[in-house]
Design brief:
This protein has 571 residues and is α+β, with helices and mostly antiparallel strands. It contains 13 helices and 19 strands. The chain has helices at 26-29, 38-54, 79-94, 104-120, 137-156, 162-180, 188-204, 208-218, 238-252, 259-269, 299-309, 312-325, 333-338; strands at 127-129, 133-136, 355-360, 365-370, 373-378, 385-389, 392-401, 415-417, 420-432, 456-470, 475-482, 488-495, 500-502, 505-506, 513-515, 521-525, 528-533, 555-561, 564-570. It has a nine-stranded mixed beta sheet with strand order 3-4-5-6-7-12-18-15-14, with no helix packed on it. Strands 8-9-10-11-19-17-16-13 form an eight-stranded antiparallel beta sheet, with no helix packed on it. Strands 1-2 form a two-stranded antiparallel ribbon.
Amino acid sequence: MDRRKFVSLGAASVCMMPLIGSAAFLSDQYELPQVKPQWLIDLIKFNDIDVKNIAAYKITDTAKKYYGGYLSDVEIPNPHSTCAFINRACGAIACSESVYYQSADLLKDIHLALLALLKMQHADGTIDLMDTNFHSTPDTAFMVKRMVQSYKLLQQSGTKGTPEVLIPFEQFLKRAGEALVVGGIHTPNHRWVVSAALTKLNEQWPDIRYVNRVNDWLAEHIDLDPDGQYTEKSTYGYSAVVDRVLITVSKGLKKPEILDAVRKNILMMRYYLHPNGEVVTEASNRQDKGTVGTMENYYYACRYMALLDNDGEMASICRLIESTSFRKLTDTLNYFLEDPALWKELPGGKPLPVSYVKSFPYSGLVRIRRNQWDTTILSNNPGWLTFHKGNAVLQGMRVAASFFGKGQFQSDTIKETGNTWVLTKKLDGPYFQPFPKDKIPADGDMARMPKSGRKQSEVQYLETTVTISEANNGMSITIEMGGTDNVPVSMELIFRKGGKFSGVQPHVSKADAWLFNEKEGTYTVGENTIHFGPGKMEHKNVQLRGALPAMDAPTVYLTGFTPFKHTIQLS
């Protein structure tokens, strides 16, 4: 995934002729193929479709400031949409397999888009991400690392009239380079995206300032934890971006040691796969947290490392991606076409792990998979357990109590005891005595009489323990809550949309909510069924004060009062 996809089409250039001398390491190992493989040609054809679809967003009114540029899906002219067109169009015009090969009309559109892009670029070389970031060095870098590739393929395309178009292209990129050698960043991955953009600029227009700035960022060390995960833990989003751009820096600056981080991250991802090819995202610190995603963003890095290391497991990940999300690979096709060594056939596959228990303490989760079902246990997350069985998905289990407006449970840690995992949380609910008389302000200002300065009394406690273990080809979860009696409790089984229930009853006043008091319930999506039970229903108050709002998803509720103890099984 790259920064802010354009509508549903992506912000990537997707098709290019081989770039001479760009394959830093793989080309040293293999005789470069001369003929594009069929999978590459298929992606070129998909790119043609995308170029045609993007045309609907072109600004065609010559009176408009950004005439020739491109709109977002909410009709805002912006550099990201404009770059998306340029990258895809440059790919198409350079590929003999494309219907747009050496097209004079498309070249004219590229020229107009570049002129509009220059108007969108600030004098300091930066561009804006219209959603949130202005004069943004990182967003400029996200564009530049692809645009240099597009510049090269247009330059090599042999299209009549290209030299005139390359003038504004070069102007945009060199202006951007001035921003990248001095500009700052927001998030950890931005360091490596900026470094990759500078590396690509240095390949085209060598400048020691570019290299020095990359080394400034690399001096901070790559932020990989012992689990094999980057700081942001963004498994569907930025981890894959980091893998790609680190390969770019490694190749461009001849730093093979950088690839070790890429290897470790991909090897970790073997254990973040659901049986249907989706990725575990619940531990992410970024906007992909809890989203549904597959592995397509890792394809380039997996293919590169599979060929470099002759690694069968990475080759198997590539084949998994091809079988589940091939069409989405169009977004990163420029990487494949830039390096003809990637056209070589993948090594033989090695089976990926499908039955395991794997803890990732630095990421705060435990992964358990048994062939066609899997579960994730999470700390620091109110949705502390997921359960996948094919396309039937329990996307979260939560429990809360009406305890002083703060009874939503989540655990700071996961404690492993033998074959069980324990999550705990202890809360207190105090009352407060009068403020000490000798400290009462004359004006009675409550801000100067805080609770921290008052004695506590009648303190109530609520202690929650969740014990999780494997049982009966599934999971057994026991929830115990106690300390203060008669506190209402509500437990949620939050499923992904698209299935059908049995054994539950609709809530009388709440949409997409079911109460459960039977021995067993089921949730079925196609051929996949999750079994759960037994139920518990001692009241019908499912939205407790202090609990998180219900998710927009079909949810089964179990209810009771403290002291509360209930064991539910999933299979």
